[in-house]
Design brief:
By secondary structure, the chain is of the alpha+beta class. Helix content is about 15%, strand content about 35%. The structure holds zinc ion. Its cofactor is Zn(2+).
């Protein structure tokens, strides 16, 4: 086994999110709503050397698979990420994330006057555009630091 394989070893059942943009691992955990109190085994590699990215982060979560909404947000934080499903220590499925057309209910609009921030039963909805995501209610655009606008937690 090479050193590289050792780094991404070895969970029994769960999800390995690999090729995460360096510096985004904690945001990925926030997307998953994981802060350590849930009892999932979690390990994180940050700024690990990567042939393709220079350096990358890796997030491994035992006993947890990802919803499509979670994968959609991860694609915005880490466009090169791969999501590996692990069962009995084997990777049974490996998927590159894809940018969705829109994300609903997962981000908070930065515009305090936006109806999605009022006390109304309206879920946030953002259309994914070339340079970020745009609120479909007020037009506000989030270009960077999408991880700062997560609606989770
Ligand atoms: Zn808005």
């Amino acid at each position: 086994m090479t050193e590289r394989e050792l780094r991404v070893s070895k969970i029994r059942d769960g999800t390995v999110i690999d090729h995460v943009t360096a510096g985004q691992a904690l945001n990925v955990l926030a997307v998953l709503g994981i802060d350590g109190d849930e009892g999932f085994g979690v390990s994180i590699g940050m700024n690990v050397p990567s042939d393709t990215l220079g350096k990358k982060d890796i997030v491994k979560v035992e006993g947890r698979e990802l919803s499509q909404g979670e994968v959609d947000i991860i694609s915005l934080l880490a466009p090169e990420a791969t999501v590996n499903i692990v069962r009995e220590y084997e990777v049974i499925e490996k998927n590159r994330v894809e940018r969705p057309e829109r994300v609903v209910g997962l981000l908070r609009c930065p515009n305090h006057n936006c109806i999605t921030n009022a006390d109304e039963p309206v879920s946030s909805s953002f259309r994914v555009v070339d340079d970020g995501v745009r609120c479909e209610y007020c037009g506000e655009i989030i270009r960077t630091d999408i991880g700062d606008h997560l609606a989770v937690n």
